[in-house]
Amino acid sequence: MTKVQTYLFFEVLRAVVIIIGGLAMLALLAQGLSRTDLILENRQSAITYFYIVMLGAPQIIALLTPLALFVASVWSLNRIHKDSEIVVAQAAGMTRWQIASPIMRLAVLCLVAHLAVNLWVQPMAQRAMRETVATARADLAAALIRPGQFTSNGDRLTFYAREQAGGELRGVLISDMTDPENPTDILARSAALIEVEGSPTLLLRDATSQQLDANNQLSILEFDQYLFDLTDFMKEDSDLVLKASDKYLYELFFVDRTNYFELKDADSLLAEAHSRLTTPLLNIVMTLLAIFAVLGGDFSRKGYSKRIAWATGGAIGVLIVQLVLQSAAANDPALNLLQWLAPLSVIGILSYIYFARGRHLGKVERPPLELFRNPTGAAS
Length: 380
Known about the structure:
This protein is 60% helix and 16% strand. The chain is an alpha+beta fold. The radius of gyration is 32 Å and the shape is elongated. It starts with a helix and ends in a 7-residue tail after the last helix.
């Protein structure tokens, strides 16, 4: 690239990074507020909280990149054009394509990065986030051990401990409602959370078990030590169900036909797969709209508010159409073709209008190079 093109490239790149960074921070803050229950209810560490919030960053950045590219391109080009730098570049012999090419190169780089995020980074991060959240919510030690409070894990288990000293609980009460007709209450002087063959287990000491038998007679059993297996109480919370955003591309195209839920959602998974491939094209669409808004007409020191307003409306319209098509394709797979046609047709139309028309207009708009090489005119 020439010095002028390099200058344009880095001007737009700087604005893109600033805008994406600012919008991503706001989005992550909003997402983080919805995750505060991990600390308040499950007593997880701040490191776990921030780790889960940061795992949502790839998806947010991918969603914001096309919009940020449009805003950055419009802002940078408008400022440069109002300072007459574009006019000087045109007068020096640069065509419309040469002026727009550094911004288009940046758009292609954003497209590749967006595609990489959609195909690999986002599913990897989403899976890691869902696994971390599931592990945090299934952490019975954090969910149940709240000294001085009655806590429950669903409707089947109620737990109480008078106090906690180190790793030992004292004054333990457990109400097991697995069998509603014959509930079991267990009292223990102390308890400790251990693992037995990989299963979370409470080791109860000096325990008493009370249960009504089939004849409604109270049965009391006393134990020096009693192992209370918690595995059955954490199965429901530990099951990990992957959503469409968590799956890789091949998993979206080739669903598991033996899985009832995947087979039921096959059309929506297919729509998600096509969306992963087509949304990166919006980077090109947004860049062309920005270029057309600022450079698609005559120079004006008053600005290009009307053209920018029209381009902004077009950008919002394209984003809405793309979302509507993805939603509609989830019910009708034939509409997946429109997910490709919508951005490609806009790219084709804008490219033809701007670049094909620009080749003709450029010959009229540019002053002769001789005037800049020899300002006096007659001295040549």
